Amino acid sequence: MKSYSLSMFRAGFLATILVSGLAQSTSLYTDPRDVSTKEYDFIVVGAGTAGNVIATRLSEDPTKSVLVIEAGIDDTGILPIHVPFLGFSNEGSSVDWNFTTVPQEELNNRTVPVPRGFVLGGSSSINLMVWNRGSRDLWDHYAKVAGDSGWSWNALEKYWDKASTYLDCTTVINYLSLTTHCSQISTLVPPTSNPALPPPPRNDPTLSNGNGPVLVTRANFPDELDDKVINASMLLQQENPDSRFKYTVDMNTGDSIGFGYYEESTGHGERSSSATAYLHPALNSKRRNLDVLIQTRAMRLLQSKNTASNSTISNGHSSVPHFNQVEVAQSVDGPRFKFSARNEIILSSGSIGTPQLLLLSGVGPKDELKELGIDVVADRPAVGKNLRDHPMLVTIYNVNSNQTLDDLMRNPALQEQLLEQWQNNRTGQFASTTSNVLGILPEDQLKGIEDPASGPHAPHLEMLFGDGFLGLFEPLPANGHFLTVLNAVVAPKSVGSLTLASVNGGTFTHPLINYNIYGDSFDIQAMLQAINDTETFLSTAPWTQDDFIISVTGRNSTSIGTEEEKIAFMRDNTITVFHPIGTARMGSKEEDVTDSRLLVRGLKGVRVVDASVFPTLPECHPQAVVYTLAERAADIIKEDHGML
Ligand SMILES: Cc1cc2nc3c(=O)[nH]c(=O)nc-3n(C[C@H](O)[C@H](O)[C@H](O)COP(=O)(O)OP(=O)(O)OC[C@H]3O[C@@H](n4cnc5c(N)ncnc54)[C@H](O)[C@@H]3O)c2cc1C
Ligand SMILES: *[C@@H]1O[C@H](CO)[C@@H](O)[C@H](O)[C@H]1NC(C)=O
Ligand SMILES: *[C@@H]1O[C@H](CO)[C@@H](O)[C@H](O)[C@H]1NC(C)=O
Ligand SMILES: *[C@@H]1O[C@H](CO)[C@@H](O)[C@H](O)[C@H]1NC(C)=O
Ligand SMILES: *[C@@H]1O[C@H](CO)[C@@H](O)[C@H](O)[C@H]1NC(C)=O
Ligand SMILES: *[C@@H]1O[C@H](CO)[C@@H](O)[C@H](O)[C@H]1NC(C)=O
Ligand SMILES: *[C@@H]1O[C@H](CO)[C@@H](O)[C@H](O)[C@H]1NC(C)=O
Ligand SMILES: *[C@@H]1O[C@H](CO)[C@@H](O)[C@H](O)[C@H]1NC(C)=O
Ligand SMILES: *[C@@H]1O[C@H](CO)[C@@H](O)[C@H](O)[C@H]1NC(C)=O
Question: Signal sequence: where (predicted)?
């Protein structure tokens, strides 16, 4: 088994249930036999980030019935989900699907973890809560690929607003009845105190200010890296006005490039997920038309009228297979049950689950399906293809500081005290995530290379800073203090694929996930640049004063070494940021899996709403991009069924 630097949290806390957990809703089922109706207007497969938006929005219409089918468990009362500081400890736990890749050739055949939420809220319940909108260019690129201006940045503004609310400093202070003034909380106001620089431009705050259910804040608790990162970016900008390391107040204005505080999906000291923000409020308001069935996996989609491969249902134009049933099971050998959808089935099972279900249902590359003995319902060669993720290099430094999180990680009594405080009034260190600041920057060596990013306002690289040993999949050393830098290539060129390992076991058998990390040598060059950029950044005064950085762990130097040594280091220390996309890509071409209204081409009655439809990677942490997609998709579905 893997071990985790924060495993001490997991071991103790997962068993802990909040004493005052919400009463379970009567329409939350754990057994398919208890669900009284077998036919609904809509069936949503997956109560994840996107699925809960769809289910909640569709069930706003009391005349339409909605069933949500979720493989994982209820999130209610699971502390590591709700306590922001414990966000890291969900990977590899009972709320994770625990997928891994196949051996990655360019990583010396290492496999890398593919965590995915196995719980209400899906990955929004287990992610690290970074809240990035992406760039204007990203959405404009999607609009172009889809041939639908409805996906452009400007057209989506209202859906961004519909998904989230930014709680500014004053709101947070009032909620906590604190006497502190906002300007006294260094993490909530951008520092303007560097006299050598003009005050950083304040972008229009309305841009990141919506009025939707997901709560968003800046970091709730300061750490020693905040000032270092912001000062370093300001100093580099002072030296060079065209600095690639510029400071930014707001990463969510459409020009996402810059270093600064990021926003996170927390509010009032708790994680805000699609379960806490959308699904539970809908269930608690006793919508009679919304049922949720958990601990139950969709196994495949079926055509009830005619299960033969060439079923014909006249829709007035052409004859296409029409899936209107979902077959489910609670264990691999357990009984199967069927639920029918009068209007349509929405697949929101994520970038791994959605292509897996389509393939198991006979929708995919004909030859692959035949080889596995699956009847071909629709030959869709792009299903499972175009799998992409952001490669991420984890670099850990020994540092000269006693303020890092490491001592807390080694101190169960202090953790217990902070947890008590959190339970008492949602304040203190546990009310915040384990990192506050990041930087997003463009490549500077693209001469002659086709730019893989969406456009000039979209970045290529990211640096995220953690004040302690955030090894993710390695144990915390018994001694020492650490800085973790997570470098990601956010516009990589490598493309991989997902295929079925076998038809046996259905969705109980893990698919073969191949990200093909560094398969394109551009990504190695890009990561080399990221390492160089990190060395440049960390050689500024805020880091060198007081000899803060001692060395890269396991080395005698603050540098990783020669280019050869850097590439070897990359092969040993790269994972991904857990952002897979693209396996049911949207596009205007016949070969694309979904069209601009997210309907699966070649089928009737099936739509995909989740990260698998993105044709290219968002150059950012994608959850807010998924929420925005889902909010528009809900309106598209309502429009198509006369509900608007
Ligand atoms: C560890 C981790 C950290 C991350 N950190 C960040 C971050 O800090 N910021 C950010 O923006 N993004 C982050 N992400 C990525 C982000 O969370 C995802 O991109 C996003 O949540 C994906 O949403 P989705 O709706 O496509 O899929 P999901 O939210 O994963 O939802 C899919 C749902 O479908 C269910 N499902 C799958 N198959 C079946 C089946 N056969 N039957 C029934 N149900 C099924 C799953 O259990 C799940 O609930 C992180 C992801 C992970 C895993
Ligand atoms: C993932 O692994 C954890 C720890 O072994 C386990 O408790 C959990 O059930 C696994 N998840 C699934 C979906 O099997
Ligand atoms: C990785 O595995 C492949 C296939 O087994 C093999 O050809 C290759 O040599 C291996 N690479 C390394 C670095 O071990
Ligand atoms: C479906 O149609 C194809 C081509 O029209 C044909 O080759 C195939 O045999 C048909 N399959 C069934 C089950 O009728
Ligand atoms: C950290 O604590 C140790 C032991 O108390 C002390 O010797 C050392 O000077 C401290 N280091 C810093 C950077 O404060
Ligand atoms: C929250 O609770 C802690 C004790 O658990 C207390 O010290 C602190 O003052 C409280 N804060 C507020 C804002 O009530
Ligand atoms: C990284 O820095 C080294 C040494 O300064 C330089 O030789 C190399 O070209 C740089 N590589 C990239 C990708 O920037
Ligand atoms: C950051 O800059 C401010 C203003 O110049 C200064 O007061 C502070 O000490 C600096 N902090 C660090 C860590 O460099
Ligand atoms: C670091 O330097 C010391 C002393 O010079 C040496 O003994 C040790 O092997 C070096 N370690 C590494 C990882 O290079």
Answer: 1-23
* Cα–Cα distance, 557 to 583 (Å, whole number): 41
At 200 the pLDDT is 39
Task: Please list the ranges in the chain whose pLDDT falls under 50.
Answer: 1-23, 179-207, 306-317
544: Cα separation from own chain's centroid? 34
Instruction: Round to whole Å and give the CA distance between 198 and 247.
Output: 12
CA of 544 from ligand 9 middle (Å) equals 22
Question: What is the pLDDT at residue 22?
Answer: 46
What DSSP state is assigned to residue 581?
Answer: B
Residues 574 and 392: beta-carbon distance below 8 Å: yes
> What's the confidence (pLDDT) of residue 630?
99
Q: Are 146 and 596 in contact (CB under 8 A)?
A: yes
Angle at 192 between CA 187 and CA 197, to 5 degrees: 140
Other residues' Cβ atoms within 10 Å of the Cβ of residue 195: 6
The structure tokens 């805020």 sit at: 542
Question: How would you classify residue 250: left for phi > 0, otherwise alpha for psi between -120 and 50, otherwise beta?
Answer: beta
Residues forming a β-bridge with 50: none
Looking at the CA of residue 528, tell me the nearest atom of ligand 7.
13
Angle at 94 between CA 583 and CA 277, to 5 degrees: 70
- How many whole angstroms from its chain centre is CA 361? 26
Lookup result for tokens 């308001």: 285
CB 632, CB 150: distance < 8 Å: yes
* CA distance linking residue 386 with residue 426, whole number of Å: 42
- Rounded distance, CA 282 to CA 298, Å? 23
With beta carbons less than 8 A apart as the criterion, state whether 260 and 232 touch: no
| pLDDT of 174 | 57
Model pTM?
0.92
pLDDT on residue 205? 47
**Can you tell me whether residue 482 is helix, strand or coil?**
strand
Q: What is the DSSP letter of 23?
A: P
CA 451 to ligand 1 centroid distance, Å: 28
Question: From CA 163, how far away is CA 56, in angstroms rounded?
Answer: 12
Distance CA 408, CA 85 (A): 12
The count of other CB atoms within 10 Å of the CB of residue 346 is 30
The closest alpha carbon to 5, from 409, 415, 572, belongs to: 409
Q: Is 528 in the pocket of ligand 7 (CB under 6 A)?
A: yes
- Straight-line distance from the first to the last Cα atom of the chain, in angstroms, rounded to the nearest whole number: 50
Three-class SS of residue 608? strand
The answer to whether 277 and 53 have CB atoms below 8 angstroms apart is no
570 appears as a binding residue in the annotation: no
CB of 529 within 6 A of ligand 7: the answer is yes
Whole-angstrom distance, CA of residue 73 vs CA of residue 56: 18
Say whether 623 counts as a known binding-site residue.
Answer: yes
Exposure string for 399-422, b = 16+ CB within 10 A, e = fewer: bebeebbbebbeeeeebeebbebb
> For ligand 5, atom 3, which residue shows the shortest CA distance?
402
- Torsion region of 130: left, alpha or beta (phi above 0 gives left; psi -120 to 50 gives alpha): beta
Residue 121 tokens, joined = 């809220």
Q: Which of 82, 322, 481, 579 is catalytic?
A: 579
